[in-house]
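Hi support team,

I've been running sequence recovery on a batch of backbones for a student project. Most finish fine, but this one hangs at about 90% for roughly twenty minutes before it completes. I'm not sure whether the input is malformed or the queue is just slow. I've pasted the structure tokens below so you can try to reproduce it. Let me know if you need the job ID as well.

Thanks,
M.K.
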């Protein structure tokens, strides 16, 4: 399969997961997506440190989905990433608006 077909399938998976996530999972996904867009910030680094722990149990399905998303996202082009945002906007426009607000806020703080 070509890269484009695989990427579309990956986006379809992410959108399907997103549509079924509860609010706390969407909030975590928002933080992750913002971090990927602007790079690591002090706040995100501290949040990641707080979430580190040694666990004897298997990761949740959500954690596995987030890990897959991170791997896929790294291989996507900028156009692919923008397409994902468009697809997510069709599911939850408020979520995507919050994403853009968070990115803008962080970029303003940096300048």
């Amino acid at each position: 399969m070509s890269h484009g077909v695989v990427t579309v399938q990956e986006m379809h998976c992410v959108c399907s997961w997103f549509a079924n996530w509860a609010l706390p999972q969407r909030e975590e996904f928002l933080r992750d997506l913002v971090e990927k867009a602007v790079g690591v910030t002090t706040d995100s680094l501290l949040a990641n440190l707080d979430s580190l722990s040694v666990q004897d149990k298997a990761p949740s399905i959500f954690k596995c989905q987030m890990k897959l998303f991170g791997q896929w996202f790294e291989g996507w082009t900028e156009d692919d990433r923008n397409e994902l945002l468009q697809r997510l906007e069709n599911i939850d426009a408020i979520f995507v608006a919050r994403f853009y607000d968070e990115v803008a806020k962080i970029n303003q703080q940096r300048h």
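--
Follow-up from support: It reproduced on our side and the slowdown came from queue contention, not your input. DSSP finds six helices and no strands in the chain. No action needed from you.
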